[in-house]
């Protein structure tokens, strides 16, 4: 962020959620020597929504970027590309193209269904244009991942920030839907590309507790946005979205 990003007008706030290891503490001490960097210590149980709400409240920029710590920069003008989209009339949120370390798609937008949400064409090759060019065109969507999400501060505050009852899952999707509900657009751009390990910090191991929490939070999302979930406004009604494919929907 500090040395590989061409955009220089930035302030970085690191949310330190209970770091204990010496190497990490030394890193935090080192980065704060840069006047653009501050560290906010949040020594409490992990709640992604509450952490980011606290982070936004502690910053002052007109545009706020939520960025996970398992994301790596791939090209210096990525932030400029996101700002360019954010400054377009009517845009409230901007998402980026995220690739796994093996150069396959981790995130190219999110689609909704009655069962919850799914990443569009996850696992596609980085040079795959996707169905009707969906992976290579900037476009409007109903939701993007919070792993790399730019939002206008005034819009974030208008909708009340992130729902802290959604501790880990669905909070970014819920935020996007509330932004759309107040008349702003959610845009995804393939011209800002980063690497996302996806679970590289907190891990991906599923435990009974994590599974229960995931479905509880999914139920909260579907319960709040049921009518929206039944009909994604962006995906053709003739297509069915799975986690890795767009399939022709069978006659119902």
Q: How would you sum up this structure, described in words?
A:
The protein is of the alpha+beta class. It has a single domain, classed as Spore Coat Polysaccharide Biosynthesis Protein SpsA, Chain A. It is 27% helix and 25% strand. The chain is built from 6 helices and 13 strands. It has helices at 22-31, 48-57, 78-86, 153-158, 171-181, 208-229, and strands spanning 12-16, 37-41, 63-67, 71-73, 91-99, 105-107, 110-113, 116-119, 139-141, 148-152, 185-196, 239-241, 246-248. The strands form 4 sheets. Strands 3, 4, 5, 6, 9, 10 and 11 form a 7-stranded mixed sheet that branches. It is globular, with a radius of gyration of 18 Å. The termini are far apart. 33% of the residues are buried.
Briefly note the CATH topology name: Spore Coat Polysaccharide Biosynthesis Protein SpsA, Chain A
- Fraction of helical residues: 25-40%
Q: What gross morphology would you assign?
A: globular
Task: Give the DSSP E fraction (strand runs of 2 or more residues).
Answer: 25-35%
Indicate the mean pLDDT: 91
Radius of gyration, Cα only, in angstroms?
Answer: 18 Å
- Provide the number of structural domains: 1
Main beta-sheet strand count, sense and barrel state: 7 strands, mixed
Low-confidence blocks of residues: none
- At the first level of CATH, the class is Alpha Beta
Number of helices: 6
- Name of the CATH architecture: Alpha-Beta Complex
Broad structural category: alpha+beta
β-strand number:
13
Order of helices and strands: EHEHEEHEEEEEEHHEHEE
